[in-house]
Amino acid sequence: IGFIVMSETSALSATAATESRLVGVTSALATVCIWAGWLIATRYAMTSNFTAVDIGLMRFVVPFVLLSPIWIKKGIWPKGLSLTNGLLMIIGSGAFYTLMVASALQFVPASHVGILLPGVMAVWAVLIAVLLFGERPGKVRIAGYVAVIVGVASLVALKPAGVISDDMLMGYGLVSAGAFMWACYTHAMRQSGLGALEAASFVGFWSFVVIAIIALFTGTTLGDAPTGDIMMLMTAQGLLAGCVAVITYGLAVRHIGSTGASAFGAMTPALTALGGVVLLSEPGNLTLVLAVVLVILGVMTASGVFRRVRV
Questions:
Q1: How far is CA 112 from CA 96, 106, 256, 292, in A?
Q2: Prediction pTM value
Q3: Pair 303, 266: CB distance under 8 Å
């Protein structure tokens, strides 16, 4: 009888573990698709009749409203959150980050931004950790960062059609600045003590306030835009990227761990490049494939995925 009970318990545990991993993997895939979709939708908007401010308004009005019960309960500035960390979170992932990336997507294809953003962000993040927190990455992680740098460099240096225009150089600079802002957000978020939804509601509230103030001075073209485009962009920008991705990424981390979630996150360049080529008719070539492969392998190596697998 005891053997039967133990067997049934083991079977139940195995089933629960399988179901937990299935939830984690599904959530991670959903998150990556949303992230890639956000870049593709933003590129579409910035090559249409929308402005970066329009993107910001659509990006943050949804979390401002849907997550209002959280910021109403916790306050517009959560107790215990330092001014420095709070400002870095708002700037690093909120209104200013969105304006930066949206402006970059006016000059650079989504396929390029999908590679540059996570790649350069990973490099910025480790540089900040080394300079400010005394972190010393091992040789394997350093090799990962080198692969990322080579991938990003190949994307720029081996670009077909010869000379890169001044607009593209500006776009690359804006992407690099946006990656630096997100890296700052990452470190500030870790030190803030806020949960994922609390952070999303905090950033959503202040970012909408900032964007609304900017819109008062710059104006907006939303009043003249097609209703279908507005609904599509609000869904991709606000609902999915602003709210759903926060939940799905949290589920991924809970069920497969931060390392596993990071590994799936490294798929963003490939999905964005594929979406850019298929949906936006952006040029695809071997240089793009090489950059995607190097950045994915580099980010996964730097996150410690291969080390965990080997153990």
A1: 20, 12, 29, 9
A2: 0.84
A3: yes
pLDDT digits (tens, 9 = 90+) for 115-173: 888 888 888 888 888 888 787 878 888 888 888 888 888 877 766 555 567 788 899 99
Burial 55-82 (b: 16+ CB within 10 A, else e): bbbbbbbbbbebbeebbeebeeebeebe
Query: Taking a C-beta distance cutoff of 8 angstroms, is the pair 105, 46 a contact?
Result: yes
Name every residue whose Cβ is closer than 8 Å to that of residue 26 and which is 6 or more positions away in sequence. none
How many other C-beta atoms are found inside a 10 Å radius of the C-beta of residue 172? 21
Are 43 and 109 spatial neighbours (Cβ–Cβ below 8 Å)? yes
Answer for the pair 125, 183: CB distance below 8 angstroms, yes or no: yes
**Torsions phi, psi of 219, nearest 5?**
80, 175
SS3 helix, strand, coil % of the chain, rounded to 5?
Answer: 85, 0, 15
Residue 193, number of CB atoms within 10 A of its CB: 14
Per-residue pLDDT of 225-245, as tens digits, reads 899 999 999 999 899 988 898
Closest CA to 105 of 28, 59, 38: 38
Instruction: Read off the tokens for 263.
Output: 């590994």
Helices and strands (H, E) in the chain, number of each type? 14, 0
Residue with the two structure tokens 């991705």: 245
